[in-house]
Write a structure and sequence with these properties.
Strands 4-5-6-3-7-8-17-14-13 form a 9-stranded mixed sheet, with helices on one face. A 6-stranded antiparallel sheet has the order 2-1-16-15-11-12. It has a two-stranded antiparallel sheet with strand order 9-10. The radius of gyration is 25 Å and the shape is globular. It is built from 9 helices and 17 strands. Helix 3 packs across helix 4, helix 3 packs across helix 6 and helix 6 packs across helix 7. The longest helix is centred in the middle third of the chain and has 26 residues. By secondary structure, the chain is of the alpha+beta class. About 5% of the residues have low confidence. A hairpin with a 5-residue loop joins strand 9 and strand 10. The protein is 30% helix and 26% strand.
Length: 405
C-alpha cells in the first residue's frame, strides 16, 4: 500500500484518492493522525513531512491548491491549541502530490536543487602614473548605518514576507537619509527620494526603469501596503497562502535589492563583493553535463553508502546498479532556472520500491543525488511523475533570492 514511512497515503481503507505531502522546516516530535474537515492529516515523529489525504483532485495543481489550504489551516489550529509550531518549507518545489487521472492513480514527486557556482577568475586592477609607477589605492573605510541592520535581517530569514518587510525598512530608512520626509505625503516623498537617487547615483539606469511611479507600484502599492497592513475586508497578503502573492512580493524584493545595491555602496562606501556571472552555455542542453537531454533519472531503494558522503560516486555503486532508470525531458530553461521532468509506469519499479533516492545521471557519472525524507512505497499507484527544479546560483555574494517559506 502506498506510504511515506509508515504514513498511508490512501487512508486505512483506500477511502481517499488524492493528497499531498509537504516538507516541513522542522520534524515534529510526536505522531499525529487526525481528521480535519473532509481530509486526513498525518505527522510522524522525526520525519519532516506533513501528509494530507482527501478526494477530488484532477491534477497536480488542484492537489497542491486543495492540500495547501487544508494543511495551513490545520497548522494554524495546531499551533494555537496544542502549541505545536510547524511550517511548510518550499511548498511549491519539494512536494509529493497524487490524484486520480481517469482510472489511473498518479503520483508526482517534485524536488528542488540550488546549484552553487563559484568564480574561478580573480582580477586585480591597478593604476599607474605617466612614468609607469603603480599608484597606491586609496583605502576607504566602510561606514555603518542602521540601513545595514535591516538589510542583514532580510538575508538571514527563510521567510519571503519577513525578508521583504525588513528590506523595505532598509529602503525607507535610506530614502529618509536622501530626503527627509517632512510634511509630504508618503508617495510624494518616495517619488522625490527616488528622483534624487537617480540624479546622484544613476538609479534608473541601474534598475532599467526610468519612471518613479512604476517603481512605487511594484514596491509600495503591490507589496508594501498588503504586507504591512491586515484589516478585515481590505487587501492583505496572508502568509503561506497564495503563490500569486509570493510572485508579486518576490518581484518587488528583487527590485528593492537592486535599489539598495545601487545607492548604499555609493552613499556609505560599502561596496559589495559580487559573485560570478552565469554563462549561457552552463545551462545549454547541448553543452552542459548538468542539464543534458541525454541524462536520465534513476530511482532506487538502496541505502546510500558512506563513500557517497565522502564524494566517491560511481555508476557502478549498488544504488545505481539496482535502480530503475528512465529518460528526462527538459521542460524549460529560463535565465538561471531549469525545469526537468520524467515519467515511468509503477509496474516497472517492482525491484526498486520503496524508493529512498531519486537521482539524475548521464552516461558517465552521477549528476545530482536527492535523498527522500522517508522511504516511499509507490505500490498502489499506476504512474510516477518526477519533477526537478534547478536554480543556478552565484557564490552567495549577491542578495538572497530564494526563500523556503
Amino acid at each position: 500500500m502506498a506510504a511515506l514511512g509508515e504514513m498511508k497515503l490512501f487512508g486505512d481503507n483506500n477511502e481517499y484518492d488524492s493528497g499531498v505531502a509537504f516538507e516541513l522546516l522542522t520534524a515534529p516530535k510526536k505522531m499525529l493522525v487526525e481528521s480535519y474537515k473532509s481530509a486526513r492529516i498525518q505527522l510522524s515523529s522525526g520525519i519532516p513531512l506533513i501528509i494530507c489525504s482527501f478526494n477530488g483532485a484532477g491534477d497536480r495543481s488542484e492537489a497542491l491548491k486543495q492540500g495547501a489550504e487544508l494543511v495551513e489551516e490545520y497548522l494554524d489550529l495546531l499551533s494555537f491549541i496544542l502549541g505545536i509550531d510547524l511550517a511548510i518549507k518550499n511548498r511549491d518545489k519539494n512536494t509529493y502530490a497524487w490524484w486520480l487521472d481517469g482510472d489511473k492513480k498518479v503520483v508526482n514527486v517534485t524536488l528542488s536543487y540550488v546549484y552553487l557556482l563559484s568564480p574561478e577568475v580573480h582580477m586585480e586592477l591597478v593604476s599607474k602614473d605617466a612614468a609607469g609607477k603603480v599608484i597606491p589605492p586609496v583605502i576607504v573605510s566602510p561606514k555603518h548605518h542602521n540601513i545595514l541592520r535591516f538589510f542583514r535581517l532580510s538575508q538571514v530569514t527563510d521567510n519571503l514576507f519577513e525578508a521583504y518587510r525588513n528590506l523595505y525598512l532598509s529602503f525607507e530608512l535610506l530614502a529618509s537619509v536622501i530626503i527627509p520626509k517632512g510634511k509630504k505625503t508618503e508617495k510624494k516623498w518616495l517619488i522625490s527620494a527616488l528622483t534624487e537617487m537617480n540624479g546622484k547615483f544613476g538609479l534608473f539606469k541601474y534598475i532599467c526603469n526610468d519612471e518613479p511611479l512604476s517603481i512605487l507600484q511594484v514596491i509600495y502599492d503591490d507589496s508594501r501596503l498588503p504586507l504591512f497592513h491586515a484589516k478585515e475586508g481590505k487587501c492583505h497578503y496572508l502568509p503561506a497562502s497564495s503563490d500569486t502573492d509570493r510572485s508579486v512580493v518576490q518581484k518587488a524584493l528583487n527590485m528593492l535589492s537592486d535599489i539598495l545595491l545601487c545607492v548604499v555602496p555609493q552613499k556609505f562606501s560599502t561596496k559589495r563583493k559580487r559573485g560570478c556571472v552565469l554563462a549561457s552555455s552552463v545551462i545549454d542542453d547541448k553543452e552542459s553535463p548538468i542539464i543534458s537531454g541525454g541524462n536520465s533519472f534513476i530511482v532506487s531503494g538502496q541505502a546510500i553508502g558512506n563513500d557517497y558522503r565522502e564524494g566517491k560516486i560511481e555508476l557502478s555503486d549498488p544504488w545505481f546498479m539496482d535502480g530503475v532508470d528512465f529518460p528526462i525531458k527538459i521542460e524549460s530553461i529560463k535565465g538561471s532556472h531549469a525545469e526537468i521532468t520524467g515519467t515511468i509506469e509503477v509496474a516497472q519499479l517492482a525491484t526498486a520500491t520503496p524508493l529512498t533516492t531519486i537521482d539524475m545521471v548521464n552516461s558517465e557519472y552521477p549528476v545530482l543525488m536527492c535523498d527522500l525524507d522517508a522511504a516511499f512505497d509507490v505500490s498502489g499507484f499506476d504512474r510516477l511523475d518526477v519533477g526537478l527544479s534547478i536554480e543556478f546560483d552565484g557564490d552567495g555574494n549577491h542578495p538572497k533570492r530564494h526563500y523556503s517559506c
